[in-house]
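Appendix B. Raw example, untouched.
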Amino acid sequence: MVSTETVRTIVGIIGNVISFGLFLSPVPTMVKIYKNKSVQAFKPDPYVMTVLNCMMWVFYGMPFVHPDSTLVWTINGAGLIMELIYVSVFLIYSNWPIRRKILVVLLIEVIFMAAVVLVTMLALHTTKKRTLVVGILAIIFNIGMYASPLTVMKRVIKTRSVKYMPFYLSLANFANGLIWTVYALLKFDINLLLPNGLGALSGLVQLILYAIYYKSTKWDDEPEKPTANVQLSRTNNNNA
């Protein structure tokens, strides 16, 4: 009989593959920015915030914080590298005011993360306490990032159009949240269960809206100027 730990490992690997696909989803946007040598109306905010989210989950997955979470820090480590690349694209092709804002926020994130690491390692001396504190922080930042798809879903309902809510991204968000929810249940981890359960629910709602408003969508309308709201958050994530 296959052990629960083996099943959990397999589920975690599948989750890594799906999450990696989500982290790659902004590539077309980055290619568009590169070709136009301008960020146009695209906003760096989701990418800058995802950097902090990934850093928090990488730290959470460390064996001295939460043992047996290798598949958590590996995917978020890969995600962190990709998000830093995306942020670098914005730094290169943005004007100075936007570039300055990005640099300030990144500095604040690094200082905050350094403070979390120092307090965790110096004041909390057991993995149970570290898991609790870092897990709560990770949940807060993860749940906070679900605000992005809410804006898109509101737009879908208002316009009765799913033109700017990509089906495959919504499907990937649902699959990602679902697989990590299963992973969290196999070896009960409330810190993974809460944000990914909400992620699965968010993805499911997006798919339901897609089914409802697909027929009323006018696909041949003139494309609107791209905005940050057109981009669904990939860290629903993201992932663990």
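End of appendix B.
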